[in-house]
Specification:
globular; Growth Hormone, Chain: A; 2% strand; mainly alpha; 77% helix
């Protein structure tokens, strides 16, 4: 009997319960995406410096996820293999989220004459901690799918995770604008980060206490331990080579992800700044005095709320179509659905760059949500067919390199290009944040064409 025969089939209710922790993780990540730009800019970060701070995500993804993935493959405790990483990742990540907006206050503890850059350094440090913790939890969480769920349900299980990501992002992004609209209360940045920290830890605690990891027989357990030790004893580069050599299609799937995530992060990193500076016309505040910045404070708050509404719609569409897109993939094939979804996102980017109006940007973000929903599920479903049993965590960690590494290009080269692309806006200066969407659209189109070359493995 294969270990696949020991895996239970999950009901819809069980799949919903399974993804609650991912809801909390994405809630936290969405707050990090929306608010880190305005927060670091208020502390003096230029577009390039902001991009370098954003390196936290890809660098910790490249370093942390493969290590944590391999460790979790070789972890066998009474609490489970992956659960300990979910718990501690959420615990320290939540603390980082709560302390991040207090960076200026914390810098003051070093004395009244502390360096001007200290608050920004502390904020950058907390961002790196948050991103490391999110990555430490995310890889093992993804590995729970091949660990515990039958292969025939991998696509639908990953789509439920997309469902949780969409819902978590909608609630996170929509809370502050809703409170402003319904009660005329502007939620502070501090309060939004605290809310994100609480959601992160509570969501993960729910999964840790309610999800039962598959417990193999003693014989199977010993085989898994032996396989995990073999994998852990190999040099990392050998594990990468073995992963890529599983099939020529694995390399294509990784290349597909590489270009797709360049495109995705071109939007994720720079969208709020685009809304603030291009759509709402707020100049580069990092170079302005406090008295001038104060005159743009209301406009900046309005812009941040609009950015949150756009992200809410973006993720609402992801949430709505997460399950239908999996059903379509079952009937039409993963690659056809995924390629079409990527092209729809590329069209949305071109609309944002070329038609900067509120209505167009809001509608385009809704359209882009289709590509986001597909990217969160179908590549993992395509890859899972090639993962060697016993190396699920390591495989997901290696695969994450092709998600994280392209982000380095966005955080450095694209951020540098935007930093250099300055234009005059009346008596003030601004940057061409819209260039991020032109570049991102090109990357998504390339990814879509690579997707169509993948020969999917039949069950």
């Amino acid at each position: 009997m294969s270990s696949e025969d020991n895996l239970r089939k999950f009901s819809s209710l069980q799949l919903l319960n399974f993804c609650i922790g991912f809801f909390g993780l994405q809630f936290a990540w969405q707050m990090r995406i929306i608010l880190s730009g305005p927060l670091t800019e208020s502390l003096g970060a230029s577009p390039l410096l902001y991009g370098l701070i954003w390196l936290a995500g890809p660098v910790t993804g490249i370093v942390v996820q493969p290590i944590i993935g391999a460790l979790s493959d070789n972890t066998f405790t009474k609490f489970g293999r992956r659960i300990p990483y979910l718990f501690f990742g959420a615990l320290f990540g939540a603390l980082g989220l709560i302390l991040l907006p207090k960076s200026e206050f914390l810098s003051g503890l070093f004395g009244a004459n502390h360096p001007a850059w200290l608050a920004l350094f502390i904020a950058a440090l907390f961002i790196w901690i948050i991103d490391a913790c999110v990555n430490a939890a995310q890889g093992p969480y993804r590995a729970l799918v091949p660990d515990n769920i039958q292969k025939t349900q991998h696509a639908i299980a990953n789509s439920y995770l997309s469902f949780a990501i969409g819902l978590g992002s909608v609630v996170a992004a929509g809370t502050a604008p809703f409170l402003k609209w319904a009660f005329n209360h502007q939620m502070s940045v501090d309060a939004q980060f605290t809310m994100a920290g609480i959601a992160f830890i509570l969501g993960m605690l729910w999964t840790c206490f309610t999800f039962r990891e598959n417990v193999p027989s003693r014989e199977a357990l010993m085989e898994k331990k032996l396989e995990a030790k073999k994998c852990a004893s190999k040099p990392f580069i050998e594990n990468v080579k073995e992963f890529l050599n599983a099939s020529p299609e694995v390399g294509k799937i990784c290349l597909m992800q590489f270009f797709a995530w360049i495109g995705l992060m071109s939007m994720m990193i720079f969208f709020t700044q685009y809304v603030v500076h291009i759509l709402f016309g707020v100049p580069n505040t990092a170079e302005l005095g406090e008295n001038i910045i104060a005159t743009f404070a209301n406009t900046q708050s309005e812009a941040q709320n609009f950015s949150s509404i756009c992200f809410a719609l973006f993720n609402l569409i992801c949430f709505i179509i997460a399950i239908p897109i999996a059903k379509m993939a079952e009937n039409l094939g993963n690659k056809r659905v995924h390629a079409t979804s990527l092209l729809s996102m590329a069209i949305a980017y071109l609309l944002i760059a070329c038609m900067p109006t509120k209505v167009t940007v809001l509608a385009a973000m809704g359209l882009a949500g289709i590509g986001w929903s597909s990217t969160l599920a179908l590549p993992f479903a395509m890859l899972s067919k090639y993962i060697k049993e016993g190396t699920e965590g390591s495989a997901m960690g290696i695969f994450n390199i092709f998600i994280s590494a392209p982000q380095v290009l966005v955080c450095t080269l694209l951020a540098w290009f935007i930093n250099k692309s300055v234009f005059q806006m009346g008596e003030y200066t601004n940057n061409h944040w819209d260039y991020a969407f032109l570049f991102g659209a090109l990357m998504l189109i390339i990814s879509a064409f690579i997707t169509m070359t993948v020969k999917e493995k039949e069950e």
